[in-house]
Amino acid sequence: MQYSISKTFDWYLTHVLPTVEKYAIQKKDGYHGLYTHTAAVVFRGIDYALALGQDTAGVVLACAFHDMARTNDEYDIIHGKNAIPLAESAMNEIGNVSYDLRESIIYAVKNHSLNLPAPDYISECLWDADRTRLAWECGYNPKFFATNRAKIIASKTAKEYIDFMKGHLSEYALKIIQLGESY
Question: Where residue 107 sits, what CATH number does that domain have?
Answer without folding.
Answer: 1.10.3210.10
